Amino acid sequence: MGRRHTDAETRVRRGADGQLYRAAQDVTAMLRDTARTFDLQAERGEAAQTAEGRTTPVRLHGETMRMVASILRGQADEMDVQLNAIAVQHPLR
To answer: What is the band of 1 on the pLDDT scale with cuts at 50, 70, 90?
Structure first.
């Protein structure tokens, strides 16, 4: 497993169009970290969420948390594949 990503390391840049942009590697790292957190919460039985307008947390089903984690990891993997293909087609000079 790789090094843990932190929010402090996330670089945000403003483009000429005024939009905010993050490096793709930061986005995939955040997806994988979120997936790891979901897996750990499911494993420990700590998965709970307090919905807006409620005062008591709702316990989240562990298998659902693991499924969401799997989807997030899949999205990160797919982004890596697509970004690698773009990098090969358009190398930096």
So the answer is: very low
pTM beyond 0.85: no
Residues 6+ apart with CB under 8 A from 48: 57, 58, 59, 60
Q: Work out whether strand 12-14 and strand 20-22 pair parallel, antiparallel, or are unpaired.
A: antiparallel
Q: For residue 27, is pLDDT > 80?
A: yes
The Cα–Cα gap between 28 and 21 comes to 14
Residue 5, helix vs strand vs coil: coil
Tell me the CA distances in angstroms from 44 to 11, 33, 53, 55, 74, one per residue in order.
32, 16, 26, 22, 23
pLDDT band at 29 (very low <50, low <70, confident <90, very high): very high
- Closest by Cα among 12, 69, 7 to 41: 69
Confirm if 33 and 5 have CB atoms less than 8 A apart: yes
